[in-house]
Amino acid sequence: MAPKSVDKASLSMIKKAAADDVTTVWDRLAAQKPQCGFGKLGICCRNCNMGPCRIDPFGNGPQEGVCGATADTIVARNVLRAIASGAASHSDHGRGIAMTLYHAAKGEAKDYPIKDTSKLKAIAAELGIAVDDRKTEDIALEVAKQLLEEFGCLKGRLDFTNRVPAKRRELWAKLGITPRGIDQEVIESMHRTHIGVDNDYASLLLQGMRTALSDGWGGSTIATELSDVLFGTPQPVKGQSNLGVLREDQVNIVLHGHEPTLSDVIVAAARDPELVELAKSKGAAGINVCGMCCTGNEILMRHGVPVAGNFLQQELAIVTGAVEAMIVDIQCIMPALPQVAKCYHTKIISTSPKAKFPGAEHMEFNEHNAMEVAKDIVRAAVENFPNRRPEKVNIPSEKMEYMAGFSAEAILAALGGSLDPLVDAIKAGSIKGIAAIVGCNNPKYTQDRSHLNYTRRLLKEDVLVVATGCAAIACGKDGLLRPEAAAEAGHGLRAVCESLGIPPVLHMGSCVDISRILFVASAIANTLNVDISDLPVVAAAPEWMSEKAVSIGVYAVASGIFTILGTVPPVLGSKKVTELLTKGAEDMVGAAFAIEEDPEKAADLALKHIAKKRAALGLS
C-alpha cells in the first residue's frame, strides 16, 4: 500500500488522528472503496428523472440512456458541467473582488484602501479608461463597473483577451470559442447539458473550451488583477511553511479558503494592540495567524504570513490540538472539519453567506463592516485559548523557509523590466522551457509525491518551474522555494537562478493566479511574434481533484498549452471524448491533454514536448 504522504508532519498527524479516534479524509476514502466504476469512467447520467442511467463499458448491457444519450454524449455533458462549475467558482470569486473594489471606490468599504494605484491606472489604460487628472476613486469606480459588465457583456468578447496573441484570437474566432460574457458561458453550458439540447460530443467540448476561457481570461484574471489593486501586487517575500509554523505559546488562527477580502483584513485585525493584549491576558504570548490552501497563498504572497499546509492538511492542522480557530470562507473546505474539531477545542468559524457548514459557528463577513467583523472573529479565537487541552497538543517540528511573491510584475522587475533576458536564456538553452505545476492534492495518491518528483526531474533538465495553489505549497514545504534549491537544478538553470537570487520554482500565487502564468506566456509569445502553442511551455496538474482544476486544464489547452493530468479524469468511458481531448484538440487548438499518473513518465512527456517546440523554433 502506498504511503499517504511524503510529508513527515502530515504522517505524524495522521498517526495522531488515529490514536485520537479521529476520522480523516484517508479513512473516508478507504470506506468508499471500491468506488463506483461507472462514475470513474464518466458514463453515468442524472440529468433528468428518467434516470439515473449508465452505459455498460463492456458492451453487454445498455449502450444508451432512457433518452437515447450515448456514452459520448453523457461523458461530454459531464465534462462540460464540471467546467461550468469550476469556471463559476473562480469567476464568482472574481466578481466578489470586483464588487469590493466598487464599494471601496464609492466610499462604502472604508477598510479597503486601494494599495496599488499604479496597477489600477495601468488596467484602466488597458480598458480604454481615462486616468489623467482624475481621482483614484473615480478611476477605480469606472474600472470596477467595466469589469463587472464582463460577466454579462454584450460586446462579443472579454476585454482581457486583448492580451492574447493575435494568432490565437483568430483561431478562437474560427472555432467559435471566443469567450463572451462570463455568466453567459456558464449559463449556456448548463442549458446545453439539459435533456434534449446539445447531444454532439464535439460541440459540447467546444463550448467547454469557451466556458473555460471565460474563466482563465475573464473571472480569474479579474480576481487576480483587482486583488493586486486592492491588496498590493505581490513582490518577493520570505516566510515559513508546514504544520510546524503553529505556535504552542500563542493563539493559533488558521485562515482557510480562497478570498483575500477576508484573510487580508484578519491579518491586520490580529495585529491590533488591544487584541494582542487580550491574548496575553488569556495566557498566550501573542496571536499567530497562518494560512491554509489558497487563502494561505494570498496572504503569504503579500504579507509573508506562514502557511500551515495544503488541501490534505486542513484536518491535520486541527489534529495538532493547537488551533484555536479555523476561519473558512469558500472552496476546498471539507464538510468534515466541524466533526474533527469536536475532538479538540478548535472553533470552525464560517464567514460566507454562500458556504454554511453544519456544526460550525457562523460569523458573516462583508466588505461594509470588514474590520469590525474581523476583530470579532479574532476575539472569538483569543477567548478560546484557555479551552486548549495541553494533553492533546502535538505540533510537528517540520517547517521550511520559502520565497514567494512572483507576480508577473515581480518577474519583470527581477529581469530588469523586460522579458528579453528570459527569452534570451530560452534561446540559448540555459532555460530549456517553462513548466507550470498547479492544482490540488488528492487522497487517492500519496500527498505531494507527484508534485515533487515531477518538479525535481524538470529542474535537473534546466526547465524553469512556475507554481500556484497546493502544488506551490508542496514545493514550499520541501524546500524548492528557496534560492538554495537552485543547487538541484541543471547547470544552465542554476546559473540563471543564482545570478538573479531566485529559486528554481517561482511561487506565483493561488489557483485564480494561474492567470498570471497566462499573462507571462502571452507576453513571451508576443515578444517572439508567435502563438502560445509554439512555445516550449507545458502545464501539469499532478494531484488535481476539483472541478476548478478541470476548468483550468481546459483553458490552458484552449490557450495553446500542452497539459498533463496526473489523476485520471472521468472520461475513459467514451473513446471519442478521450481521443478528442488527448489527440484531436492538437489539430483544433494546437495543444492537448495527456494523462499520466507516474510523475517520472509525466516529466518525460513534458521534456519531449519542450524539445519538440524548441526544434520547431530553430533552437538547439
Descriptive report:
With 620 residues, the chain is of the alpha/beta class. It has three domains: 71-231, Substrate Binding Domain Of Dnak, Chain:A, Domain 2 (Up-down Bundle); 243-392, Rossmann fold (3-Layer(aba) Sandwich), CATH 3.40.50; 407-616, 3-Layer(aba) Sandwich (Rossmann fold), CATH 3.40.50.2030. It has 24 helices and 16 strands. The protein has a six-stranded parallel β-sheet with strand order 6-5-4-7-8-9. The two termini are 43 Å apart.
Strand order of the largest sheet: 6-5-4-7-8-9
CATH class of the largest domain: Alpha Beta
Low-confidence stretches: none
How many strands, what sense, and barrel or not for the largest sheet?
A: 6 strands, parallel
What's the overall average pLDDT, rounded? 97
* Total strands: 16
Question: Structural class per helix/strand content?
Answer: alpha/beta
Strand content: 5-15%
Give the CA-based shape: globular
Helix content: 40-55%
CATH architecture descriptor name of the largest domain: 3-Layer(aba) Sandwich
Note the total helix count: 24
Task: Report the span from N to C terminus.
Answer: 43 Å
